Amino acid sequence: xxxxxxxxxxxxxxxxxxxxxxxxxxxxxxxxxxxxxxxxxxxxxxxxxxxxxxxxxxxxxxxxxxxxxxxxxxxxxxxxxxxxxxxxx
Length: 89
What we know:
Elements: E1 10-14, E2 17-20, H1 21-41, H2 57-82, H3 84-87
Antiparallel strand pairs: 1-2
Helix pairs in contact: 1-2
């Protein structure tokens, strides 16, 4: 039998505000996406693009924002509609 460690889900609590571990992983993932996306813009073929085809930091931010919105919408629709049986015990 596997023994799972009992880890507190709250990483840091400052009065009534609790910061959870999963929130820190989301923050790390977003920061890593922005870092790698902006770094990628400095390499070929993106650095050679000129005019309206050129990508900017704003485009990377927009991709991150749209990805979060689409994933949130998919989960908000998928879980209640198609996976409702697992939510009811």
